[in-house]
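Example record

Each entry pairs one chain with its bound ligand, adenosine-5'-triphosphate.
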Amino acid sequence: MSLHEHAERTTTRDAPIIEVRNLQTAFFTEKETIRAVDGISFDIRPGETVGIVGESGSGKSVTARSLMRLVDAPGRILEGSSVRFTHLETVREYASTFAGRTVDLSALEETYDPVDLFERNEIDATPAAFGYEHAHEVSLADIVAAGYGDELGIVDEGDCIFITDGTPDSPDAIADGFIEITRLSGEAQRRIRGGRIAMVFQDPLTSLNPVYTVGNQIKEALRLHQGIKGDAATREATALLEAVGIPDARRRVNEYPHQFSGGMRQRAVIAMALACDPELLICDEPTTALDVTIQAQILDLLAELQETRDLAMMFITHDMGVIAEIADRVNVMYAGEVVETADVNTLFADPSHPYTRGLLRSIPGQQTGDRLETIEGNVPTPNEPATSCRFAPRCPEAIDECETVHPVSVPVDEDEPDHTAACLHCPTQLSTDQAVEMHRRRNATRNGGDLE
Ligand SMILES: Nc1ncnc2c1ncn2[C@@H]1O[C@H](COP(=O)(O)OP(=O)(O)OP(=O)(O)O)[C@@H](O)[C@H]1O
Ligand code: NI
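Structure tokens for the complex follow.
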């Protein structure tokens, strides 16, 4: 799809279906603590494709696995992280099914003042970590969702459904609330993973079982997540294979994965993901293993499915060319951090982080000379808390302060709040000294006290 068509599609937007705030996922190995995802924030809206792009080791897959709660030991999601699933129908259903794990946040707000709580020692986050400039902007929902509510004695460990408008007593009338994915466990977790949120991996064989027919695997997903069984499930499985463009679906529904080509297998995996009727589809390099022609076909298929089903999609790739094809918004990741975020047109027209510019220069066909420019060096392992710019050692525009001040995400231009970059050269209206001072201040301000 061309950039022009994207512009038309991105004009109207609903509220987000998922809100990621200050997500931190670390692996505690014997040698070191790897901060694979180190405080990232972004939203995804229904019908929107959010691309995550970055070189190998930047934390893209760990982000996806964190949203799916598929992070295994020695890794875990750290306190301070929040991933809110805000799909209203699901919130209502959860409040009714898991009433004992549902909290009325609007009622709690009458007892607790978030500003007072935020000054307590149990909370070691900055307002910037929650995406604010000032401490008084932090809400009770932010505090509780980030996991501080337990230590403060406000919520119980199992609580994971938070109602901000309405009461848990009448679930159908709930007007606003969220399921905190980082707090899910047991049945509540199982119903989200592979149900409301489905994932397609790079290698289709990791998702397909060689000993069952493709049809039976899709039918199992239909039974588990939608309660569809028997002949109805067979019909639906066939319809799904047709929907993902598998020819002769009636026959192929009875075949085994090894009888499918690579491209057809990935289509079958997408059909399986759709069998759960998800709200959010996460694709982690779904076309990387395929040849270029098949890759283009799968991208077209995903774009089409997304539009017809109004799916929210998170699409991971290291390929800026693929991003241009599929994404509405883009998060550029580097060493565990989102270093730039913008809608896709803005990102390509006005890339502001030197890392993004480097990635764009390495797209084949984009450079003036005949040599493909790549960024020299590798992504460092983020094994210490960030006290500098992790890209500085490779950055052509680095200044001395990049070694001593950690850049936070700020608007590139004050008039464009949706375009942010974590670079000491931003905001561009400010002088370098002023900008550096702004980044320094936002890092230094712990809880309490307003910034600027
Ligand atoms: N199970 C694990 N144990 C220890 N470290 C891990 C584990 N999984 C990931 N990491 C580390 O987390 C960091 C981010 O890895 P991740 O897989 O998210 O990168 P990526 O951006 O998806 O890269 P790629 O493009 O190669 O898939 C890397 O430094 C990686 O070594
Ligand atoms: Ni990956």
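Residues 1-12, 446-452 have pLDDT under 50 and may be disordered.
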